[in-house]
Specification:
about 525 residues, alpha+beta, five-stranded antiparallel β-sheet
Length: about 525
């Protein structure tokens, strides 16, 4: 009955915001087109389609809000007007009662809140679609106190998510069957990707692990602060971390009044991003202004403060090299190399003609060079390359789409801080240095160092392994070899017999001829 009520509510929201018209307008069946015209009679659907979709998702609740956020990253699949509108979805949703939060904490940590914390703020400082955050003071065994932030998962989210995702799967199947764009949009794959993101975020231990990895990676950069996890109080439903102090990065005037070097702050943000992407292959993929602050403490003045690590992106060495070479070739206007990289990556069919793909990429990229480099958006370049690739039947990898979305966020943030930011001049030295490290002696030395422990372990065993190989029973190989030898021997004997017969026959002819000549001589 609950599922039925939920289904009826979803249908009502769909009709209220005209999503049926938005959905049916993509179908090619004539009877559906006529039905769409009839259904829209009497309803005010003057608002843009992207706005109506965003408002509908907001009314459907946290799970659908999160779906909209994930969809906003898939600019390779959605029209730009819808993707731009979905990007406006905020993580602010009404908080759940503090009594429920306290009960969840006590259940997860198996101790009363007052025994763990000397102070616990009942009013949450932030509330999102998946969890909310409370400030507190943690009491340790020595009686010392430490300011912390407590993140609590919304109760009952797993059941709600499973039900709503199941409904989404059903809708995706129908969309794929009925819409002529259904297969290209890949709704089932999008829902599966969304399902994975949601279930990853439901495990707060995973988020804590992500934060710890990023903190370790960034420790020597001195440009960004990442909270330390208090692992004794981290569970799937609750995590406790170091409380961070900073000014939201969106408050540019307050930062400028405090004396922060804003242009340097913009350059540092680009450096952090490219370090995470090309050095580590592990990047914070949810870097919107709500998750970024700036420290004003004397010891860390002007450094970034990064928060919320539920979504991270990972890149393989192959992905990193592909991206770096694409960016480098693009700014050299070497469109043939860009086309070759697409084919070498295997994301374009091998039979694709290089000259055709080169021409398409040139048409996409060349207009950018009518502008100063500081006006070129690397995120837009990457998105246009993805769109061009789709025309040539390539399926873009999800990790690269996530990267493109994050790069757009970084660019927007950087140019909000400093409109004169030249992203390419900041990124180019980093990319060139990274490329040199991939093909130069540093790369060889690093690989030798990485392989040294394994080689050191194998080296003492090498004589034994060689001896064992030489002593190994090669019965099958020996049998085949003996068979070949026997065949060769039989062949040799046959050839010898034929040769002897031929020689005998030839000798007989010679003797007969000689006897004939001798007889004639006697006569």
């Amino acid at each position: 009955m609950t599922r039925l009520y939920r289904g009826v509510f979803i249908v009502w929201i769909v009709l209220r915001f005209g999503l049926d018209e938005l959905l049916l307008s993509g179908f090619k069946q004539p009877w559906l087109i006529r039905a769409t015209r009839v259904l829209t009679i009497g309803r005010n659907l003057s608002a843009p389609r992207g706005q109506r979709l965003r408002q509908a998702l907001e009314h459907l609740g946290p799970v659908f809000v999160k779906l909209g956020q994930v969809l906003s990253t898939r600019r390779d699949l959605l029209p730009s007007d819808i993707a731009d509108e979905l990007a406006k979805l905020q993580d602010q949703v009404p908080p759940f009662p503090s009594e429920v939060a306290v009960a969840s904490i006590e259940r997860a940590l198996r101790r009363p809140v007052d025994e763990i914390f000397s102070r616990f703020d009942r009013v949450p400082v932030a509330s999102a679609s998946i969890a909310q955050v409370h400030f507190a003071s943690l009491r340790n065994s020595a009686g010392q106190e430490r300011e912390v932030a407590v993140k609590v998962l919304r109760p009952g989210m797993l059941e709600v998510i499973d039900k709503d995702v199941e409904l989404m799967r059903t809708m995706a199947v129908w969309l794929e069957r009925l819409s002529h764009d259904g297969r290209r949009l890949k709704p089932r794959e999008v829902v599966a990707e969304f399902d994975k993101y949601l279930h990853d975020e439901l495990d707060l231990v995973r988020e804590a692990s992500n934060a710890t990895q990023l903190r370790r990676n960034m420790s020597g950069l001195n440009l960004v602060l990442i909270p330390e996890m208090v692992w004794d109080y981290c569970t799937r439903d609750v995590i406790v971390m170091e409380r961070m102090h900073g000014v939201p990065i969106s408050q540019v005037s307050a930062l400028r009044q405090a004396g922060v070097d804003i242009p340097k702050l913009a350059r540092d943000g680009v450096t952090i991003f490219f370090t995470q992407v090309f050095r580590d292959g592990f990047f914070h993929a949810d870097m919107h202004p709500g998750n970024i602050q700036v420290s004003l403490a004397p010891a860390t003045f002007g450094q970034y403060v990064s928060l919320d690590f539920g979504i991270v992106g990972t890149l393989t060495e192959f992905d990193k090299e592909y991206l770096a070479q694409n960016f480098t070739a693009f700014f050299r206007r070497d469109y043939k190399r860009v086309a070759e990289l697409h084919i070498e990556s295997g994301w374009v069919p091998a039979h694709t003609r290089v000259d055709e793909l080169e021409s398409a990429i040139r048409a996409v990229c060349e207009p950018y060079f009518d502008r100063p480099l500081k006006e070129i958006s690397l995120g837009m370049v990457l998105m246009r390359l993805f769109q061009t690739s789709r025309r040539f039947q390539v399926e873009i990898q999800p990790q690269l789409v996530l990267l493109q979305k994050t790069l757009l966020n970084i660019e927007g943030l950087g140019r909000q801080l400093d409109p004169e930011l030249d992203l390419w001049s900041t990124a180019k030295p980093f990319l060139e240095k990274w490329m040199l490290e991939q093909v130069g002696p540093q790369r060889l030395w690093k690989q030798l160092k990485d392989e040294a422990p394994r080689l050191a372990k194998m080296l003492p065993e090498l004589p034994r392994l060689v001896h064992a190989f030489l002593q190994r029973d090669h019965e099958e190989e020996n049998r085949q070899l003996r068979e070949l030898i026997r065949m060769q021997q039989r062949t040799n004997r046959t050839l010898q017999a034929i040769l002897l017969l031929a020689l005998g026959f030839f000798a007989g002819l010679v003797v007969t001829a000689l006897l004939g000549l001798w007889s004639l001589g006697q006569a």
